[in-house]
Amino acid sequence: MLTEVLNQIGELYPEPMEKAQKHLDGLIKPPGSLGVLEEMAVKLAGITGELAPDLSKKTVVVMAGDHGVTEHTISVAPVEVTAQMTRCFLKGLAGINVLGRHTGVEVKVVDMGIKEDLNLPGLIVKKVRPGTADFTLGPAMSREDAIKAILAGIEVAKDLIAAGSKVLITGDMGIGNTTPSAAILAVLMDIPVEQAVGRGTGINAEIFKKKIEVINKGIKINRPDKTDAVDVLSKVGGFEIGGLTGLILGAAAQRVPVVIDGFISTAAAMLAVTLKNEVRNFLFPSHLSEEPGHKLMMEYLGLTPYLNLKMRLGEGTGGVFGAFFLEAATKVMREMGSFASSEVSFLLEERMAKVF
């Protein structure tokens, strides 16, 4: 199934992109004056084949999982908080719920590997195992479980798209998951761990030093192959990161745009791109995380974040704003007047064309 999905991921449609650009240039504005919104509109046309696709149903998918590496106390929060926050998501009380309501985004929550078994209404259960193993002692998971996590994410994407979702947004929950994400970054970009790691939930200098040591030890012991995304995921990753990787692949295979959130989500995007380079065609950034390694991740993907709100919460809280802008781009295409249909002078259009 994974090979089949990867084979479905292709290039952007060139003709709809040309039509979209021509349409934008004919609207009552100087060419290019809506900046990144115009770039979004053209890329969306290349993804969907439509000049103004309907993006009204937007869904953020919060993948949750626990990590064996938290036994080394590399986070200020205890592992139990993953399950506690999952309950908050389902009650509509968390940051992503508030910002999702504000931006018109539906929130879905997936148990990919929470240590505690939760039987809660609305929770999508795709649990591979109740948390990963401590990757300082060996692989975080087996290769088989890594593939299982990716396939579960693909299934979630397929189900949500079948239910009408037009944009998928990546979100995460997992105490300690900045540690595997930093490890993934260090491996894929072949950089020192010190450049990849950040302070996550706000750890002090002592814990920060331990976090670097833990990641270095995990990479040294497991020796993940940076050319093999499944190997990297299995050696130093997490089940929610694998699920997000699959979500991205599943959306790209069905030509549905994906908005990526912060540090953990972008680690998953890096793995997805490693599996299939054309995945880049379907990715939209949202914000620049306060995690220092996130800027490097964005450079790796060739993306420029739309916002810098100094956020580092995760959950998809930055991603919902990115999706809000995507829908704004489609409304410009659909609702803005053109020189041909409005009372704005054609002479002005000609003069602007010469200037710009």
From TrEMBL:
One family name in Pfam for this protein: DBI_PRT
Pathway: Nucleoside biosynthesis; alpha-ribazole biosynthesis; alpha-ribazole from 5,6-dimethylbenzimidazole: step 1/2
GO biological process: cobalamin biosynthetic process
EC numbers on record: 2.4.2.21
Provenance organism: Carboxydothermus pertinax
Highest taxon, organism lineage: Bacteria
Record: active site: 315
Keyword Glycosyltransferase: yes
Matching Gene3D superfamilies: 1.10.1610.10, 3.40.50.10210
The name this protein goes by in its record: Nicotinate-nucleotide--dimethylbenzimidazole phosphoribosyltransferase
